[in-house]
Amino acid sequence: MEDRLNDIINGLHQKSITKETIYRNTQKTFVRMKEISQELVSELTERMNNMDTGVMIEYRNISEHEFQIRFSNDLLVFVMHTNVVTFPDDYEIMRNQYVDEDFRRRFFGHIMAYNFMADTIKYNRLDDPGYLIGRMLVNIDMHFCIEGVKQLDLPMDKLANIAKNKISDKALRVIVESAMIASVNNDLMGQDVSDIERISLKQKLENSHLIRPRKLGFQISHDLTN
Questions:
Q1: Would you kindly state where each structural domain of the chain is located, as residue ranges?
Q2: Could you list the pLDDT tens digit for every one of the 226 residues in the chain?
Q3: DSSP string, 158-202
Q4: Bridge partners for 143 per DSSP
Q5: pLDDT by residue (tens digit) across 111-120?
Q6: How far is CA 102 from CA 82, 160, 165, in A?
Q7: pLDDT tens readout for residues 144-196
Q8: 140 neighbors 18 (Cβ within 8 angstroms)
Q9: For residue 216, what are the CA distances in angstroms to 70, 113, 128?
Q10: For 112, phi and psi rounded to 5 degrees?
Q11: Which residues, 6+ apart, have CB-to-CB distance to 76 below 8 Å?
Q12: Dist CA 220 CA 218 (whole Å)
């Protein structure tokens, strides 16, 4: 009985250390992503000012686990989840020799990027949807992979390969830039006139009948994009 209890204690201890390390790796990655996003916004603002376009680009730090980039009519929301997760054995990333070689590589921190319309936040339209742009998975070795929207302007055959992808400033900048490009290239679809020919007073007061936002062109890959 004592040996089995020791096995349980050792297993819990090892898993706890693994998850804590992955959380710190993800947090470190997210902090650096914030810094790179601020630098990117500053560079874009300077260029846009020189072009006299009148387009505003803004970085906003919301909390330890969230930041936003607002540009034109789009809002990118980056969120770091505090939980470390794993996936079923038949999930794409789990069918990987690199993951099989070390059970600790079966656990991941994750950072998500969502696209909202800027007016959704401005006017507090709680029913407006946000759209997942992509998810970044971070492991114990500071390796990563990207999954999500197929239109991300990224070399997915490389970025889905967690065995080779080490987190770097260059990779993080490319990810943020690509999320912005995906948002800019997908426009709002108007509603059919038959959908708005009758409205309630509540809708009128909230202006929710005017726009029921739906982005064009986002195609989500539920497996790893490769």
A1: 2-206
A2: 557 877 777 777 788 899 999 999 999 999 999 999 999 999 999 888 877 667 788 999 999 999 999 987 888 999 999 999 999 999 988 988 999 999 999 999 999 999 887 666 665 665 666 788 889 999 999 999 988 766 565 665 566 689 989 999 999 999 999 898 888 876 555 555 555 566 566 665 665 545 555 554 444 444 433 3
A3: HHT-TTT-B--HHHHHHHHHHHHHHHHT-PBPPPPGGGSSS--HH
A4: 166
A5: 999 988 766 6
A6: 23, 19, 16
A7: 998 876 656 566 556 668 998 999 999 999 999 989 888 887 655 555 555 55
A8: yes
A9: 19, 17, 15
A10: -110, 150
A11: 68, 69, 70, 113, 114, 115, 133, 179, 180, 183
A12: 6
- CA–CA separation, 141 and 158 (whole Å): 17
In angstroms, the CA 226 to CA 224 distance is 6
- Is 80:211 a contact under the CB 8 Å cutoff? no
14-18 contacts: CB < 8 A, separation 24 or more? 18/104, 18/107, 18/140
